[in-house]
Amino acid sequence: MGGAILSEFLTQTLIPVAAVVGIGFALLQWLLVSRVKVTPSGVSSNNGYNEQLLVEADEEGVDGRQAVIKCAEIQNAISEGATSFLFTEYKYLGVFTVCFAAIIFLFLGSVENFSTKSQPCTYQKEKMCKPAIATALFSTVSFLLGALTSVISGFLGMKIATYANARTTLEARKGVGKAFITAFRSGAVMGFLLAANGLLVLYITINVFKIYYGDDWEGLFEAITGYGLGGSSMALFGRVGGGIYTKAADVGADLVGKIEQNIPEDDPRNPAVIADNVGDNVGDIAGMGSDLFGSYAESSCAALVIASISSFGNSHDFTSMCYPLLISSMGILVCLITTLFATDIFEIKAVKEIEPSLKRQLIISTVLMTIGIAIVSLLCLPKTFTIYDFGSAKAVKNWQLFFCVAVGLWAGLVIGYVTEYYTSNAYSPVQEVAQSCRTGAATNVIFGLALGYKSVIVPIFAIAVAIFVSFSLAAMYGIAVAALGMLSTIATGLAIDAYGPISDNAGGIAEMAGMNHKIRERTDALDAAGNTTAAIGKGFAIGSAALVSLALFGAFVSRAAITKVDVLTPKVIIGLIVGAMLPYWFSAMTMKSVGSAALKMVEEVRRQFKNIPGLMEGTAKPDYATCVKISTDASLKEMIPPGALVMLTPLIVGILFGVETLSGVLAGALVSGVQVAISASNTGGAWDNAKKYIEAGASKAARELGPKGSDAHKAAVIGDTIGDPLKDTSGPSLNILIKLMAVESLVFAPFFATHGGILFKI
Amino acid sequence: MGGAILSEFLTQTLIPVAAVVGIGFALLQWLLVSRVKVTPSGVSSNNGYNEQLLVEADEEGVDGRQAVIKCAEIQNAISEGATSFLFTEYKYLGVFTVCFAAIIFLFLGSVENFSTKSQPCTYQKEKMCKPAIATALFSTVSFLLGALTSVISGFLGMKIATYANARTTLEARKGVGKAFITAFRSGAVMGFLLAANGLLVLYITINVFKIYYGDDWEGLFEAITGYGLGGSSMALFGRVGGGIYTKAADVGADLVGKIEQNIPEDDPRNPAVIADNVGDNVGDIAGMGSDLFGSYAESSCAALVIASISSFGNSHDFTSMCYPLLISSMGILVCLITTLFATDIFEIKAVKEIEPSLKRQLIISTVLMTIGIAIVSLLCLPKTFTIYDFGSAKAVKNWQLFFCVAVGLWAGLVIGYVTEYYTSNAYSPVQEVAQSCRTGAATNVIFGLALGYKSVIVPIFAIAVAIFVSFSLAAMYGIAVAALGMLSTIATGLAIDAYGPISDNAGGIAEMAGMNHKIRERTDALDAAGNTTAAIGKGFAIGSAALVSLALFGAFVSRAAITKVDVLTPKVIIGLIVGAMLPYWFSAMTMKSVGSAALKMVEEVRRQFKNIPGLMEGTAKPDYATCVKISTDASLKEMIPPGALVMLTPLIVGILFGVETLSGVLAGALVSGVQVAISASNTGGAWDNAKKYIEAGASKAARELGPKGSDAHKAAVIGDTIGDPLKDTSGPSLNILIKLMAVESLVFAPFFATHGGILFKI
User: Fold this and answer.
1) How far is A237 from chain B (nearest CA, A)?
2) Are the C-beta atoms of residues B690 and B437 closer than 8 Å to each other?
3) CA-closest candidate to residue B540, choices B590, B610, B489
4) pLDDT classification of B259: cutoffs 50, 70, 90
5) For chain B, what is the total number of helices (H) and then of strands (E)?
6) CB–CB of A461 and B725 under 8 A?
7) Closest Cα in chain A, distance from residue B170 (Å)
8) Using CB atoms, which residue from B568, B577, B663 is nearest to A460?
9) Using CB atoms, which residue from B464, B564, B595 is nearest to A447?
């Protein structure tokens, strides 16, 4: 069969180098962002413009220096709120992580009754492998590492976002282009840090574990799957907790502020406004960062664990084994070049160039990455090799693996473009939804829901094609690397995704600091593009989650020693139908949580407007802290039931009903969850942008619906509010549901195979 | 193995006798309803009360005689509108039926190249079976018969409903009990006619086909499956067309009438009011009748076709073979007794007794039917027999089959009760939704969607238990008879289901005829209970559809000569994920259709209010006919794309991708569609009743939200309007989607097995 062209030494060098380059590039971007000063003193020389000029340009007479000070204050308040929330959240997560680590160790250790003797391997019976207790221990360690990396990814993202938001506002004074670059660079910091950290930690873990495991790669990479589980379980709570936080505040703020009191969004008189802005950072930034890190970690783990029982696992070909990591390394370099196109090569001069520029990022990274994949596939894989395919061995050629990765990558692009089509107000779907506001909120909701349902069609076909091609060419390994392909440009994806909430915050800060309405218009334009890119980001997250969980599912089935999952058996079909129900149960919980928390927020905001004299007139300050507390308490309390649903389902089903039913549950949750997630996030994105379409009034048709406060606009605001929990809480949490259940099943597969299905054993 | 205790002669006698008894009972109920006269002359003696008294009791001074004449007029208008729409619809359906019959004949005939020679049987290779061209011909005939019976069922239902609506209004003058009995009896007419007709036609068809087929039961019952296909394909267009019709009118009428002009529901000044009432009859009555007839026909066909290759098929034990028909016969008798409890044994005296009385119907029929099933199972089945189980034979005992049918029956009851809990305003879920209207339409929609999602949980577990028990005991035959068990009390189910739209219409007629507000209150109370029973009916329809389509799916897989449907093969998994997407695509189409048609209706209604002087003052009559035309045109035009999606998908997938992918599509559509359907119809039902809860103001909490026209009520009306297409168009059409694709696949299975999957053959 022969080995890869790239030597093991070069592999061992190139991966950490790529990771370090990624981290360096992220720090460089941070440095560039930090040049924008949020302290008025000594500004002029650094920022290269005269503060005084800006003050003169400010038509409404808000003092520029005053505005800068105010921006800094607000930024501090947001940053402190977000940090304090995340630390409280991490306390809960710490308890969970310790308990769950204990469960992992005990359950996996019990597979061979905590024996410390070596055992025959699962797949190569003639060889001896490390005992189950070792896998239990190392799985626990990698679980902890994954959890830690996930938390750090989210936290750093939040830090840079709250660092960048006021800077974006201040740059918006100079024009939309400068503001765009600041927001985008900050997104890039997060993207590159996350991609590079994820790669580096995984790389080091593999090498450290290898010292103990030696030749037993089967055990080594089985233990590594804990990394994915750790990453994803933190992401679950991050997404759900953050999602409830942000939307409780957002919905609460909108319901009283915009609808009842008729004050603008982000008005500083609204007591929930700080909580709303904090929410963007803990939900859309930290939560999303953890989520995509989880996807990345899981798809790498899925690919590695399948590869460990392939021909290069058996022949200990380290370079080929590291193919998934090499793809990610190449991805970092490709994204680095891609980023330069947005920040240095093309310059944004007008509002209408923002969306094309972001879309160009997707296209450039995809095209470059296709070449990158070809190079990695040719250099790092043997010409032919065999892949484990549910009991039989499948011969695969290296160019076939190129197609597997590439089809995932391009499916991601298709999903991104379709999402953009359905959620951007530049196209007819959103415009139709906006037009339906003429006849009120009811038709707006009907059209919006229909749009979301419709937007599922093409992405599902894209995912189906990716699955079919990669599965046919290289079985489950193909699917795992297809998922990696979709995620290979994760740094760019995250950059354009994080850019959205940063712009949203920037707009909020401009409003709160009482800055010129022109600045608000600029940040609004950035934000509208951000809604679309956020939807695109969610599309990627969902698409990759579908592929990842299928790959994990395949790995689980292999590991659980079943060779088929036949729908036409009672155990599987009941799993399938119950699994398909789980996304609904989960969504019911999260949406209800947002609703209840929002009701509490509404009552508090109303109370403040009633009881604090001078609040509406702007002479008294609202009590922001109480609103922050309501969001914090609600999200921490409410994230537990949905979290428990996701974490306990695989355990309960596996223990009581066994691996066949669990397979059904995973497949059911996968095929149903993908649809719910895509439709929810696109419906929400479309409503948000339909509202922005009316507010912006860029065309004659749009102006006829407006202005703000018109009946059509009110109907649009109702749609937007309904869309909030759909697009930012329940929708994006669902990808974690399907991935997490799959990776958890994979980690516990040996336990279920040994001790599971007790109901049927009675 | 031995045969059944019941002789073939008795079987041949009892089935038609039960059917005739059912028809006779239906006619008796019709006769009782017809005693209520809608002509004022000669009323007193027949109705047993004095017309003059009623006029005096009429506080608002509307002349009683005048009101009766007006009722008759309105009833005529509704009846004519409905009849004219259905005839137009049937023209379209006629064209479709002829074309599709030709496709069936050609496709199935081509399996053996139109050879007229006998061929070895599919399952018993040593025997000779009739040629494929005979099956093609007889399948076509049974398809036509199924289509005809379905259309007749729907049409008769509509006729009795439009006959009963004004009579219910008039009876409401005497009290809520009398009105209830009239509406319920009319529902029973429809229920019994449909159940008995379905049984009778099927019975006759089997006996006639037997003359040609003789001993070849494999071919005989394969040809019979066309009956299910015919029934269900008419149901599809009936549900979709009728659903679009009724909701376009309803949404359009509400948006302008209730929200813009602040006039009550069903106000005669609203130009869309007649179209709205016509819609109830063509959608909720005719469409639903066709739907449940389809379920009944399909589950019978699924059971028969599987039984034909079981031991009693092979040994030509006619009584055992007719077990499904005997269950249905028993069901008719049980429902007959059950009906007497509502109409004769217990009397309704107060509004609050309505819902318990309807619920009692469910309980009584279920308990009695359980005994009935036991009797049939013991008398009509051999003690032990074998069932075909994907290639192997499974030994089954007669008491095991009792459990299969009973578990389906009781699962239906559980689904019914859970649906009631989530959609009746007597319980906390709907009350919470109503309370959320305090903070506006947005929270109402969020809570309503969450309620719908949550309401999926228990029904899915009930379905899963039913599947598991019946599948484990008797493979696919078990599932088919479990579906039949759920449908065995169809006459009662339909009676309480049809009761809803009749009461709704009765309320509309009272309003339009300008009758006393007390009468309107009584019909409103009937209607509120009707909303709940309609939701229960939909729950049954969906639950049974899930079981039926699984049974059909199993029969298809057997017939297509594949022995397993392994999720872990590329062909199946892509089918699964695309299949799970189809309910979304379909819902997007139907909801958008309702939205667009409603917009047209809104424009027309607005135009009339603007251009017809004196309309608001009640001095000029609106132009009802134009609104009827808009609904008619829209529904006929818009029913084609979703219809085509459902009808073409199995053909395209089967021909291009083959039976494995088609299996995946069927399983995916099943597990995903059930969830969407349940959540959509319960969300809609809950919103409707949350609105009614506020309007009725029966408790202190409810009165605080009201009265009509308050902000909370307006928010509730928005929710109700959004719910309309969910609960009456897209939701209930989805059961047909999953059933129809399955039965179509079954009918075409020999064709796909021979000529299908051409893409993979290249």
Assistant:
1) 20
2) yes
3) B489
4) confident
5) 26, 4
6) no
7) 34
8) B577
9) B595
Rg over CA atoms, chain B: 25
User: Do B588 and A471 count as a contact with CB atoms less than 8 A apart?
Assistant: no
CA distances, B726 to each of A282, B342, B431 (Å): 34, 30, 20
Q: Is A513 left (phi over 0), alpha (psi -120 to 50) or beta?
A: alpha
DSSP string, A118-138: -EE-SS-TTSEE--HHHHHHH
Q: Residue A2 corresponds to which tokens in the numbers above?
A: 């022969």
| Model confidence at B56: pLDDT above 70 | no
Q: Report how many domains make up chain A.
A: 1
Does B503 fall in a domain?
yes
Q: Using CA atoms, how far apart are residues A272 and A625, in angstroms rounded to an integer?
A: 9
Residue of A468, A445, A455, A380 lying closest to A417 (CA atoms): A455
In this structure, is residue A45 part of a structural domain? no
Partner residue opposite B450 with nearest CB, options A447, A595, A667:
A595
Which chain A residue's Cα is nearest to B554?
A568
The alpha carbon dihedral of A558, A563, A568, A572 has a sign of: negative
A16 lies in a domain? no
Q: What is the pTM of this model?
A: 0.92
Asked if A460 lies within 8 A of B581 by C-beta distance, the reply is yes
A583: closest chain B residue by CA = B453
> d(Cα B646, Cα B235) in Å, to the nearest integer?
12
CA distance B419 to chain A (A): 16
Whether B581 and B328 have beta carbons less than 8 Å apart is answered as: no
Contact check, Cβ <8 Å, A570/B467 = yes
Say if residues B738 and B294 touch (Cβ distance below 8 Å).
no
Cα B452 from Cα B57, distance rounded (Å) = 43
Task: Yes or no: say if B123 and B388 are a contact pair by the CB < 8 Å rule.
Answer: yes
Helix (H, G, I), strand (E, B) or coil at B395: strand
Point out the residues of chain A with pLDDT beneath 50.
1, 42-61
Distance CA B119, CA B378 (A): 36
d(CA B462, CA B388): 25
First-to-final CA distance of chain B: 48
Chain A partners of B454 at a C-beta cutoff of 8 Å?
A: 584-585, 588-589, 592
Residue B124 inside a domain? The answer is yes
Among A396-405, A671-680, B47-56, B723-732, name the one with the lowest average pLDDT. Answer: B47-56
A163: Cβ contacts below 8 Å, ≥ 6 apart: A30, A33, A34, A75, A79, A186
Which residues constitute the domain of residue A666? 23-39+61-760
Interatomic CA distance for residues B213 and B624, integer angstroms: 54
Read off the pLDDT of residues A706-721 as tens digits, 9 standing for 90 and up.
788 888 999 999 999 9
Contacts of A725 in chain B (CB under 8 A): 446
How much is the average pLDDT of B340-344? Answer: 84
Give the number of A-B residue pairs with CB atoms closer than 8 Å: 242
A-chain residues near B460 (CB < 8 A) = 577-578, 580-581
Residues of A in contact with B557 (CB under 8 A): 568
Q: Where are the alpha helices (DSSP H) in A381-440?
A: 398-423, 428-436
H or E stretch covering B658: helix B640-696
- Closest approach of A339 to chain B, Cα-based (Å): 34
Mean residue pLDDT of chain B comes to 88
Taking an 8 Å cut-off on Cβ atoms, the answer to whether B718 and A441 are in contact is yes
Q: What is the pLDDT of residues A75-95, one digit of tens each?
A: 888 888 889 888 888 999 999
Band (pLDDT 50/70/90 cuts) for residue B98 is very high
Closest CA of chain B from A537, distance in Å:
21
Residue of B nearest to A473 (CA): B570
Task: Kindly state the tokens that stand for A267.
Answer: 């008005």
